[in-house]
Amino acid sequence: VQEIFLKDYKKPSFTIESVNLTFELFEEETNVTNIMKFEKLDESADLVLDAQELELKEVVLDGEVLGSDRYTHDEETLTISNVPQEFTLEIRNRIYPQKNTELEGLYKSGDIFCTQCEPEGFRRITPYLDRPDVMSIFTTTVIADQKKYPILLANGNKVHCHESFNTRHGVTWHDPHPKPSYLFALVAGDLDFITDSFVTASGNDVELNIYVDKGNSDKADHAMKSLINAMKWDEEKYGREYDLDIYNIVAVDSFNMGAMENKGLNIFNSAYVLADADTATDANFMGIESVIAHEYFHNWTGNRITCRNWFQLTLKEGLTVFRDQCFSADMNSSEVQRIQDVKALRERQFVEDASPTAHPIQPKSYISMNNFYTATVYEKGAEVIRMLHTLLGEENYRKATDLYFETFDGQAVRTDDFLWAMKEYGEFDLEHFKLWYDQSGTPSLEVEENYADGKYTLTLTQNVPNKVDGSLQKAMYFPLKIALMDKTGAVAEEKMLIISKESESFMFEGFEEKPVLSINRDFSAPVIIKHQDVDFAFLMQHDTNSFTKYEAAQEFAISILFKLMEDIESDISEYLEAFGALLELDTDLSYKALLLELPSISTLMQKQDVVDFEPLYKAKDKLSYEVAKKYEAKLLKLYFQNHEPLNSALDSKSIAKRALKNRVLSLLSALESKEIAAVAKEQYEHSLTMTDRITALDVLESIDAELSEIAFNDFYNRYKNNTLVMNKYFALLAASPREGVLDRVMALQNDEVYDEKVPNLVRSLIGVFARNYKYFHAKDGYGYKFLSDKIIEIDKINPQMASALSGAFKIYPKMIESNKKLMKATLECIVSTQGISKNTFEIVSKILK
Ligand code: B3K
Ligand code: ZN
User: Fold this and answer.
1) Which of 389, 366, 266, 267 is nearest to 311 (CA)?
2) Which of 22, 332, 607, 663 has its Cβ near the most Cβ atoms within 10 Å?
3) Where is the Peptidase M1 membrane alanine aminopeptidase domain (predicted)?
């Protein structure tokens, strides 16, 4: 296996002025004709085209058919030496999309032909300089059977419909914007669609289409609405307009990730397009809004300005995630959005940053680029952009992004170029700040407070963990928002500190008594705060920052849970009282639903030096039970106050009521009582929304095996023809807290709905099981054995899927010895498997190191 290094980057030796592609799609094979106009930049260079597993038919250089002695062709490349300064190359090759189970390049999802080219899928379609710094103008003709594939799409604007010949027809598309090959897309199928339009700020009328499987067009309205909102938002917030006459989105069922921002032709996992109240949860609706926006925002941050090489991935991904987070915050509750973003960051990215696969947001090397579409590059990358936004302030940030767009439009650039634009309008230590791009691991900040004679001193000590290879890392530079409050909760002083040293003190004067500190407000920096002796109950009541208030509630519960782990009979009355106060709080209901959530097992696990799940579950069960017992009556009252089974509206108030009501029901489930089971049963049977049904199923599964079985059977029969909903069915069962999960998961693989070739289903059943810590980490090792067997099996079908599943083993070095031993054996079995993909090899071998 070959490792690719950032330091080895070299500019391309050729440019491609234009590329003209013709696809003849058949039931067995697809013929590709690829005509490229080249210019040589480096006199002495051979032309080395990327070509992966391609059947070459003919190579024609400036009209002359080349004999096979004029080029060399292997599994990875097509090389032609002695090419002129300028020339036209015409290549004919054949591919087999129907056999493509990796879902990279051109493949079939059900009856639909579609593509996925980022990062290196285009080389599986036709020979090319498949790298993001080669930008060219694409014209694409798609020819296929008219009856089976009435819809033929590619990037850009439709320029020509060819007269049909026999039973076949063709369409030509032209994209006037130069783009790298990873943004190429093609779709052919028999699809339904909905259409709408958007008039840009400068008056261009854009046609918007969303294509879906036959019969699904009534489920695309929310996606369309989200797209229109995103287009408007980008004009208002960033001054960015859309730049083609048409914007197409296609939903397919088999897709390795969420969606892809191909120029003018986004291809989506159908889970991020299709929704109605009966089949999608409120969270699904939010997810659609955010992914639709994310892909749309890429049109400027990613497509118009793209990455020079794949090490720069966070240039487009971190920035675009930050943009979609801000968009969702504007469309919904900004306080809830921020908490959810941080929760997601901690559950996925903090865990990654503390694992053997930790890497900087700008990695220095990779074996398989596909392994670097990570929470670090995306979500931590977004936090880094957010810090820049905080350092510059809204107005200067906008000036800086304007400058970025003006300066680099149409180019493939680096994170350094973005930072240059930020620095033009910001006063901060750029060189020091850049460490965020080069260092891995989550910094922690130890807090020490001193108060004497009206003076308050805050001493902050930063600790950045060592790199994976053991080498030391430096203190970082970041903005830290704090407030000092008096005993009534009134803010005496609110400040943005700049943290830049390993240890530093800040002094504040003029207090009559020791102020109360609220630190890392809005989560202004992605760091871990270590602060002893905090009056959490006070902050839960009085903190004026919605984020730190939430944080106090979580931290208080965490401290109590650790106390319970030491002694299960510990006194928890103070916490219970504070929780009671939260119940009375008069605040936004969706925010309240978050405040009432007890810390997740993953949150607790991250605080253990050596991970053992059993005591975590025990402590959490105990606390959950005590909370539910003490407040049963109040919780039930809150439940019924907010329970509106016949309301399936999607306005924020209705969503908030459902969120709170369902949180309360989940809390009550700790009682495992007949009464709560009856409430859940009633909710399952009579609510109109998927949100309610899912929570009810979850609750029944955890407290009443019999009722659960009845409800799950009903659910199955009702939705077995809807794969998107069946994903939920598999996921709920794989996440079950009830004994015997592994056996049931194994049996479910034989269900007629389950299909190992469909990534969504694999993620729902196998992926979710691997996050069911209780059973995945079972002491008998069967959880590990099951997953590693699956990884080896799926690796042959879809290496990206297999390497994603391998991520569940990241926790290996932190596990208690007995589990570690079991894990080691299974991991070694994976790496030593003959023919294991480089994707899976890279992840597993890093974990084992
Ligand atoms: N850019 C794509 C991700 C491609 C992943 C390739 N394995 C989707 C996105 O981030 O918007
Ligand atoms: Zn993206």
Assistant:
1) 366
2) 663
3) 223-433
Ligand 1 atom closest to the CA of 369, numbered from 1? 7
CB 690 within 8 A of CB 726: no
Could you tell which of 317, 374, 378 is best to mutate to test the pocket of ligand 1, judged by most ligand atoms within 8 Å of the CB? Answer: 317
Report the nearest-CA residue for atom 8 of ligand 1: 260
Nearest-CA residue for ligand 1 atom 10 is 317
294 lines ligand 1 (CB under 6 A): yes
pLDDT at 659: 98
Nearest to 582 by CA among 621, 543, 613: 543
Residues near 453 by beta carbon (within 8 Å), at least 6 away in sequence: none
Instruction: Report pTM.
Output: 0.98
Cα-only R_g, the chain: 28
Residue 511 structure tokens: 């207090």
Q: Which of 102, 289, 295, 352 is catalytic?
A: 295
Written as one string, the DSSP assignment of 664-686 is HHHHHGGG--HHHHHHHHHHHHH
Domains defined for the chain, CATH in brackets: 307-438 (1.10.390.10), 444-525 (2.60.40.1840), 720-849 (1.25.50.10)
- Distance between CA atoms of residues 518 and 47, nearest Å: 60
Cβ of 684 closer than 6 Å to ligand 1, yes or no, is no
Residue 112 CA to ligand 1 centre (angstroms): 20
Tokens in use for 112? Answer: 């639909």
Residue type, 845: S
Query: What stretch of H or E contains 64?
Result: strand 64-65
| Mutational test site, ligand 1, from 255, 261, 273, 369, max ligand atoms within 8 Å of CB | 261
> How far does CA 33 lie from the centroid of its chain?
35
User: What's the gap in Å between 272 CA and the centre of ligand 1?
Assistant: 13
Q: Tens of pLDDT along 605-663?
A: 999 999 999 999 999 999 999 999 999 999 999 999 999 999 999 999 999 999 999 99
Which positions of the chain have pLDDT values less than 70? none
> Which residues are within 8 A (CB) of 225 and not within 5 positions of it... i.e. 6 or more apart?
none
Q: Which residues surround ligand 2, an ion (CB under 5 A)?
A: 317, 320
The pLDDT value recorded for residue 1 is 84
102 C-beta closer than 6 A to ligand 1: no
Q: Is residue 295 flagged as an active site residue?
A: yes
- CA of 125 from ligand 1 middle (Å) equals 18
Residue 257 Cβ contacting ligand 1 at under 6 Å: yes
Residue 379 beta carbon below 6 angstroms from any ligand 1 atom: no
Residues shown for the chain: 849
- Token duo for residue 655: 């969503």
Q: Is 760 exposed, middle or buried (0-12, 13-18, 19+ CB in 10 A)?
A: buried
The pLDDT of residue 165 = 81
pLDDT > 70 in the chain, percent:
100
Q: pLDDT tens digits, residue range 561-596?
A: 999 999 999 999 999 999 999 999 999 999 999 999
Q: Please report where in the chains the tokens 């230590």 appear, as a residue.
A: 429
